[in-house]
Amino acid sequence: QILEETYKMEFMYSGVESRQVVIIHHMRLQAKALQLIVTARTTRGVEPLFGMCEKFLQEVDSFQRCFISELPHMQGSFVDKLLDLMPRLVTSKPSEVVKILQTTLRQSTFLHLPLPEQLHRATANIIEPTGESDNPLRFTSGLVVALDVDATLEHVQDPQGTVKVQVLYPDGQAQIIHPKPADFRNPGPGRHRLITQVYLSHTAWTEPCQIEVRLLLAYNSNRSKASAKIPKATWSESLEALPQPETGIEGTIPFSKPVKVYIMPKPARR
User: Fold this and answer.
1) Which of 62, 95, 131, 206 is most solvent-facing, going by the fewest CB within 10 Å?
2) What are the TM regions of this chain, as residue ranges (predicted)?
3) Residue 19 located in a structural domain
4) Residue that terminates a domain, selected from 63, 80, 107
């Protein structure tokens, strides 16, 4: 939950300045350390922990290179203490790394997050479908049916690159649709309109069921404004950059209320 909140703070708001991004990334580092400690307590064997520890140390290194100019203002912080301990951490076994992280978390101070003067939260409202119709959308099983989606967006930066439509089916399957750039209009400053079609397809079931349609905000913290300045790894040859997903999407944040739509796939005629 802490990790999720840090992504919301960084990517759901416009007007966030670099000094806030530093503190948000610091909080994320603390959350990942906590996650590593909890995993170590609940996982048998050390094999899974080797990879987790290496990945965490890579992230500490990335933080150092990305925010090198901010480090003098972060004395006594979690990352400040970790960087002093780095030579020891790199050569330690996972169990020792976990102990060091636990002690460092307890001894370090939390950084205050000052709010910028102008801060706007990204929001989305689905106008169509309304979610109020009881008439199921009928189509032949295995074929597709088009569902019109009309939504308003407020304070979304780069909507063409970040806004996705998610469809959740009754059996738990989820489909993420990437609208075309031409599907977005810009009626005014800070406002966008999304008018697109989502193509649904599913096998038959016996009675009408509800699907859920919602909008997601996709993000990639490796491409954020904070990480744009990071050069290639220079600190240690043992810390090679991890491969990034080909899609360029690290995760998504739901930012509209889900709308329910009745659908009824009919069996195909033989």
Assistant:
1) 206
2) none
3) yes
4) 107
Residues in Cβ contact with 58 at an 8 Å cutoff, skipping those fewer than 6 apart: 233, 239, 240, 241, 242
Q: Which long-range contacts (CB under 8 A, 24 or more apart) does 106-110 make?
A: 107/81, 108/30, 108/76, 108/77, 108/78, 108/80, 108/81, 109/76, 109/77
pLDDT at site 229: 42
Copy the structure tokens of residue 29: 């580092």
pTM for this model (two decimals): 0.79
Nearest to residue 79, comparing CAs of 62, 93, 91, 92? Answer: 62
Q: 1 and 42 share a domain?
A: yes
Is residue 171 pLDDT above 70, yes or no?
Answer: yes
For residues 37 and 94, what is the distance between their CA atoms, to the nearest angstrom? Answer: 10
pLDDT tens string 86-112: 989 888 888 899 999 999 999 887 788
Q: 126 and 255 in one domain?
A: yes
Domain range for residue 2?
1-107
Is the predicted pLDDT of residue 20 greater than 70, yes or no? yes
Q: Is residue 147 part of a domain?
A: yes
Rounded average pLDDT over 217-232: 60
Report DSSP state, residue 186. E
Check whether residue 128 and residue 63 sit in a common domain.
no
Express each pLDDT in 21-78 by its tens digit: 999 999 999 999 999 999 888 877 667 788 888 899 999 998 998 898 888 888 889 9
For the chain, the domain total comes to: 2
| One-letter identity of residue 142 | G
Gap between the Cα atoms of 186 and 190, Å rounded: 8
Residues 44 and 168 in one domain: no
Distance separating alpha carbons of residues 193 and 237, to the nearest angstrom? 47
pLDDT of 249 over the 80 cut: no
151 shares a domain with 258:
yes
